[in-house]
Amino acid sequence: MDAMTWLTAERGLDAALLAEMGVRAQEIDGYGQGVAFPYRRDGETYAGKFRTVSDKRWRSTNGVSRGFYNEDCLEGAEGPIVITEGEIDCLSVIQAGYERAVSLPDGWTEAGNKRDVLVNAEERLRASPYVIVAGDNDAAGASLPRTVANVLLGHDVRRAEWPEGCKDANDVLVRLGERVLARCLADAKRVDPPGGFVTAISDLRCMAPRRVLRTGKRVFDSVLAFEVGAMSVATGVPGCGKSTFTTFIADLVSRHEDVRVGLLSFETHPYRTRDHLSRLDTGWGWDDLAADEQRALAVRLDDRFRIVHRTYEEGAHNLGWLKSMVYTLAVRDGCKLIVVDPWNELEHLPEPGESMTAYINFALQQIRVWAEQFDTHVCVVAHPRKMPTDGRPRAPVGYDISDSAAFANKPALGVTVHQDETDDGRPFVRVITWKVRDTQLYGFEKGQIKLEFRRDQMSYAALP
């Protein structure tokens, strides 16, 4: 079928609209006939995206960083802005009467790692009365409204819902027509209505599915799981290696889930963290690598990690500062796991007359809210109070952490890292999971594993 006939007859798009938007048929090298969607800026075409008709293959202009498709509509106009996941969906929305419609240049993923175009356009998006997110009816599309709402925190962001059996805006146009598509957009619901909202059970399908990050290694996945939108707590006596272990686990999660990790490692020098990650990636310390190997490794690690560096203003590193760091890491940099290590390095400022216990209960509640709101997991590493030895150090649990039982009560997951030794004096690391809020979702109950620490690689393996 001719490409333009396919767009008009099969996808229901108006020929005059296609001509106005510069959409045309084009032979695609090595793929046959397809459709060209020009990307314009200030009225001038600067890039293109191409789709074959027969087998839905996509290509795009090489070496060009693209913004929104139809981005010129963001300038000098009024009315809401509609964000879609594809050029054909964007054209469908325009045809339904919403002229300020744009598309993400390459769709959306469940991992949420294509947010730069949203961040770059934040000022122009905020200039609208409200933004409607009209993504696909799948797991990836379900996560897009929350991401847009977080980038535009405080702005009116709404979520369009499609009728049963329709997967995207163009599907609605083809099956049900322009009027129904326009009604779906007009009925879009605010993502963060003031004060909260009420749903029926059937409305829960509009929420993003719960996601659990895992290491991909059976021994660790039997006691560890990091739910996106939740908080965990890790503890252990000083010198037990809890920072080394959490960095090791963060590296495994990053690799297995293809997500970025944010590290607020207050007691670990960034160069030491870099060396640790180098050993986990290459088997060698950073300083053992040649210059070209260091450059290549840095590129790989940049994709997977962000490190927070503190400055030295007095009173700067309190709970408000932590919120801003979590927001930046989760929303701006797309981190799905954030490690705060350790808790006691923050400046804790209870209100006058407020006990430390009440303050920590409030603070951990806030961290849990931020994890849910910003669609990430926050792991808080906290030191226990001084522990009795009983001949050898006892492994602390949540109720042994200094100042508040909230460390045991608030997290979805609670873990202890503890150095121990066998009866014949052989050292090993014991990882104890003392809190599992959702055993069905995580796939395990409270328990423990024994590990061997391999110092040269700064890694852990099951004890033989």
TrEMBL record:
Signal peptide: none
Pfam families recorded: AAA_25 (PF13481), Toprim_2 (PF13155)
SF4 helicase domain: residues covered: 206-464
Lineage: Bacteria, Pseudomonadati, Pseudomonadota, Alphaproteobacteria, Rhodobacterales
Gene3D superfamilies: 3.40.1360.10, P-loop containing nucleotide triphosphate hydrolases
Species annotation: Albidovulum salinarum
The protein, known as: Toprim domain-containing protein
